[in-house]
Amino acid sequence: MAENKAKISSMETSQDLKSDQNEKQTLLAVLQFLREHNLQETEAILKKETKLTDNDLQKEKAQPSSAVSHALAAYKSADDPSIYDDMSTRLNWPLFSTLFSYTSVKFFQKFSGDQEEYYAEDLARLAAVQQREHMEADQMMETFKSSRFVIRMSRDSYTHLKRHLQERHLTLLINMIQEHLFIDVFDGIPRNQEQIHATGGAMLGEADKEANKAKVFYGLLKEPDLNIPLEEEDEGGDGDGGDAANKSKKKKAKKDPLLMKKSKNDPNAPQPTRIPLPELKDQDKIEKITAYREALKRVKLSAEHLPSICFYTFTNACQGVTSVDFTNDSSMLAAGLQDSNIRVWSLTPRKLRSMKPQSDLEVIDKEADDVLERMMDDRTATETKVLTGHSGPVFAVSFSQDRTSLISASQDGTVRLWNLLTWANIVCYKGHNFPVWDVKFSPHGHYFASGGQDRTGRLWSTDHYQPLRMFVGHLSDVDCVQFHPNSNYVATGSSDRTVRLWDVLSGSCVRVMTGHKGAVHCMTFSPDGKILASAGVDHMIILWELASGMALAHLKGHTSTVYSLCFSRDGTVLASGGMDNSVRLWDMSRVIEEQDTDTDSNVPSSLHVNTSPDLLLGTYYTKSTPVLGLHFTRRNLLLGCGPLLLS
Amino acid sequence: MEERMFAIVTKESVRMMAEAAGYNNLSEDVACILGEDISYRLREVVMKSTGYMKNAKRRRMFPEDFNQALRDSDVQPVFGCGVIADAAPFRQTREGDVHFVEDTDITLNNVVYSSYIPKHLGHASLKAHWMAVEGVQKLSSSAQQTSHGKPTKKLEAEELMQFYNEITKSLVGSNAAAVKLALSDLSTNCCVPALLSYFVNFVANGVKAVSHDISKLTVLMHTVDSLVQNPTAFMEPQPYLNLLVQSVEYCMLEPLAASINPQNDHWILRDYAARLLAAIVRRWNSPVNHLHSSTVATLSEMLHDLSRPFCSLYGAVMGLISLGCREIEEVLLPHLPVLLPHLVASMQDTSRGNSLIRADAHKVHGIILLAAQIVMRKKIKQFQNKHLPGKESDDLHAGSSPGSRQSEAIGGQDVVRLYQQLYEYFGDSLSFTLPIMSLGDVFCGHVSEEVVNLGGQVSEASGEMLLADLMQQVQQEEVERWQQRIFSVAHRHQHAGHSRMRAKQALASGQDEEPVGNLSEREMTFSTHLKSDVSDDSDEEEHTDSFSEQLAVSSTISDPSKGTLKLKISKRQAQQGQASPSQQSTVQPRLTLQINKSWAETDRHRHYRDTHDKHKRKHRQSYKSFHEPESSELVENSDPEEYYSHPMSSLPSQIYSPGGESSGSDSNPHKKGKLTLKLKVLSKESASE
């Protein structure tokens, strides 16, 4: 163990361009120590040694310095700086972290400063652990011990490293690497510092090449043929998305390019029957037609035509608003509060009404056209309704597409389904036993996904009290979940700084996307389903291309955690809001234009991340209201909301 | 990484906690290990609670987060810290190494049964606003500042404070140019909003501090003015407005220390302050802050408090005047019956010690007079506007229908009543500045008017006789009633034997119309100034029935001892085309005459009201000796001294009310060129003009 430690330290310092005298000395000491002991005895010795006081270790480290420096010098001069760069920083952290359990405080103090800045959070957590007993109990330490840190390296770098290790007989280090690290070798040019930095940051390294190989059907589902005439007549379409045939009936000029794909078979779109989706009721068809009509009237946004923003401020909220959600047609706004209530407001002049009691319902004529209107009791019309039921702060709320249901997730570990006609709690889903951080309804209704502190994401459907799928793979809390527009995939963002895409059908993880340097708190898919945007504590928004799993752009500008993201209805503008009290608009059309078409996921060195500052179209400040929710209406008016913080 | 990156519970603390729990003999090793363990657990819990904080989308950790993390670790939560972050008030022991929270005993009864109900309990609600319209956000300076991040703001804060210090220094300094510069800067500089609280504070303290120094106070008032004028300073939502208004009111209303010395002209300061106050109210009044109503309330309260020194009253009245006529009407006038006697009592108290107060009282009286005049003027104007819509166009109304005449009469009654009321207080001085109303063609007072027929030839020789007779008669008339006389005089310039007066009788007087020419005892001598183009012919014409619009000349009295009272009547050119054919005659001067009995021995004044000429219909009414020349072309004004020579104070108690068309007299008889009828007392020797 001591040898491991020594070797690690030697590796680190030898590969660190900026190794200073102190480290050299330490390395020498370690090497010397190694020479003094036999390999087989190392484990026992190290165990003994960790129980020793710091002073002993100090003493032992102090002695040999010359040998190490020689080795170091030789290594330095021999190597090509580019490759050097490639390996040095990246091996630093994983070796440090995985071996932390075997080391002492002194070790930590000596080498922690060498680590990359974005590991600061993890370093802080490690710093808290100082006793062996604590180490064993700590979650993070366990993670490091049990999982393998992944490093992607070019073949040249890898061979170079191997040769170097063997030359210096640092076999233990080799063993260590084999045991705790996973070096994923790819053929090709080594990546440069920038590219490495772009994908670095996750708790356990990057995604290996197998992780992103699966095919993702990122296209949109074929819309049901609804025959939407421009006249007022309303012809029902022929069933739901189960119909592959698309004889075009009397169609008009479709202004929406998204709808253009109706008639074509998108190779990237999943089959409509891939996952069972509920059939469209008449009400849903009417809804779709209305949506289509609204879509025709929407404003085209671009860098020259920025959207208007209407902002809703929660006043007198006592710092208690923890989550918000808008309905798809922008008619209602729900807010989950710290005091475990949920408040729903109506954003239209139309008030919120409750359903009539049963005795009244029996009397109404069920065949009437406006039965849905007659059902509602106008005496109960109010602007806002309160839903009570949770026993802890409500961390997420989500409306269903048909606006009849609301789902909420809370710290008490339950997910509750509320009916918005009767304003009552219908179901309580108990699966997570730990706080549930996020919950979202699927765009097609019926399914919802949740993620919580237990590091899992779960897929539920409203008619089953147990989850249908469990998405296990994250190394830390799952902070946010999001459905793909075709409902076939669920994306989860976690405190382990990765974003994973899960297939609903199989439950397997099809994409692992690394690059965030802080926990991911919000995600959103573009309306065409090709791009995923995620953002979080590191103030950065990353755009991922789902086909390859590679990052398209890093949008920098926010100065604090970003909690809300929303694409415009045509996908040309991305709006983001966060704790820095600002709403920022980003140019998506430009990102797509400037997209480097040569990138190939098989060739990591071809990664080109767009970090141009011109992508920021505008910044809009509130006085002291963090922006918790953003939503583009069907006509591309941007709605934002947040609680007014007076302190 | 530092040693003390996280909270570390030291051995000593552990020992102390153990002692508090009853374990007195804790060995060092145990304490050490315990300390480390506690520190680790603390960190762990804090890590978890940051998770709660982040997912609740906050930056501040609440005690609730911490308690939740404790519950997750199967530890009992800590009670008593509140859910939302209240700063735990830690106190230190004298030695300073122990921090504790005061654990006071609370009597539950007091808490439970306390009647204190916090006000302004807000309900969670939603408020919408437009953050940007088509990508454009209405800029606010704070937003711009924060966009550059904190460091810039800090820097600016220093610069801002510097600016503030410089400005305030130069304002209180003695360099006039610096003061001027500072004031102009204040009114335009856009960093004023950031410093608004400082400036308001400066002014509020300043007025109290330098209340002995008029010039400094003036400077402070100018400062307020500049601040108000600054387009970027937005004072409405904050208490700035109240403070500023209070400061201004202080200057205006308070008996300043400086005002003790009568050499200090604090009146100008008060005037300025009053105007400033009005400007502020006008600009910043809103239904939200009720600035206007509260200011008016303050002023009226000041007025009603009779124990206040007169300078305060002065300030209050001045304030009301500046605010507007309506305020005067609503607040001041109803209060006059109380206020004025008090004032007059003070004014008449001629004791030595009272002289200063008396002077002040005079000032106040003057200002109230001004207010009254303003009100009267406005009323006249209103009345004129209402009842003489055609006055802009040179329309000579042939005659309105009797019905409308009645209603006009009634409307005019209010004006008259008001005038009567005010006249009681002020007498003739009221009409000093009031316009003369001429309503001859619209309205004819239904009250009886004294009419004297003039006509025929009057010889000089019989002038005295006539005068004597007339004097008698006038006295009689005066006893009976005085009302407005309406004259229409067609006359010629007085020459011996050629003058003749044509007097028409006013309507509704109830008196018999004396035919023209029937100037038996009442021959008068008039000297008229006529325009050359007035022909004799026109004089001859008789106005038959539409006399109501015409004036009837009243009697004149000529006192042989003082000379002939000359009545100058100017003729109006008959160029009112719209006039009815019967009214081709030129002049329709309207005169009212009031003869003061008490003046009978001294001077006779005749007041005539002329209708205006073709150009203007200036309706005026003069009860006193002032009248305006109506048209420059028609009249030459004679010297006004004689008209002003009589003291105003000796006014008749009777008010000459012409039943509806009353208004004050004009201020300046020579103001406009109009037809005037002037009364001049000529000495015997003075010849005709």
From TrEMBL, chain A:
Q: Where is it mostly found?
A: nucleus
Keyword terms, alphabetized:
Nucleus, Repeat, Transcription, Transcription regulation, WD repeat
Composition-biased stretches (Basic and acidic residues): 255-265
**Cellular component GO terms, alphabetically?**
nucleus
Q: Where are the WD repeats?
A: 314-355, 387-420, 429-470, 471-512, 513-554, 555-589
Region Disordered, residue ranges = 1-21, 229-277
Q: Does the keyword Nucleus apply?
A: yes
Is-annotated flag, keyword Transcription? yes
Q: Report the residue ranges that make up the TFIID subunit TAF5 NTD2 domain in this protein.
A: 102-181
Residue spans of biased composition, Acidic residues class: 230-241
Query: Which SUPFAM superfamilies does its entry note?
Result: Taf5 N-terminal domain-like, WD40 repeat-like
Q: Where in or outside the cell?
A: Nucleus
Q: State the family it belongs to.
A: Belongs to the WD repeat TAF5 family.
Q: What is this protein called?
A: Transcription initiation factor TFIID subunit 5
UniProtKB/TrEMBL annotation, chain B:
Which stretches are tagged as biased composition: Low complexity?
Answer: 573-585
Keywords attached to this Swiss-Prot or TrEMBL record, sorted alphabetically, are:
Nucleus, Transcription, Transcription regulation
- Region Disordered: what ranges? 388-409, 493-689
Could you tell me where the Basic residues compositional bias lies? 493-503, 605-622
Q: Where in the cell is it found?
A: Nucleus
Record field: compositional bias (Basic and acidic residues): 520-534
Chain intervals with Polar residues compositional bias:
551-561, 586-599, 647-656
Q: Where is the TATA box binding protein associated factor (TAF) histone-like fold domain?
A: 7-71
A Pfam family this protein belongs to?
TAF6_C
Tell me yes or no: is Transcription regulation among this UniProt entry's keywords: yes
Keyword Ion transport found: no
Highest taxon listed in the record's lineage: Eukaryota
Name where it mostly resides. nucleus
Q: Mark the transmembrane ranges.
A: none
The cellular component terms of Gene Ontology attached to this UniProt record, alphabetical and capped at eight, are: nucleus
Entry-linked InterPro entries = ARM-type_fold (IPR016024), Histone-fold (IPR009072), TAF6 (IPR037796), TAF6_C (IPR011442), TAF6_C_sf (IPR046344), TAF_TATA-bd_Histone-like_dom (IPR004823)
**Residue stretches of biased makeup (Acidic residues):** 631-642
Query: What family does this belong to?
Result: Belongs to the TAF6 family.
Q: PANTHER family, alphabetically?
A: TAF6-LIKE RNA POLYMERASE II P300_CBP-ASSOCIATED FACTOR-ASSOCIATED FACTOR 65 KDA SUBUNIT 6L (PTHR10221:SF22), TRANSCRIPTION INITIATION FACTOR TFIID SUBUNIT 6 (PTHR10221)
Q: What is annotated about its quaternary structure and interactions?
A: The nucleosome is a histone octamer containing two molecules each of H2A, H2B, H3 and H4 assembled in one H3-H4 heterotetramer and two H2A-H2B heterodimers. The octamer wraps approximately 147 bp of DNA.
Q: Write the protein's name.
A: Histone H4
| Lineage of the organism | Eukaryota, Metazoa, Spiralia, Lophotrochozoa, Mollusca
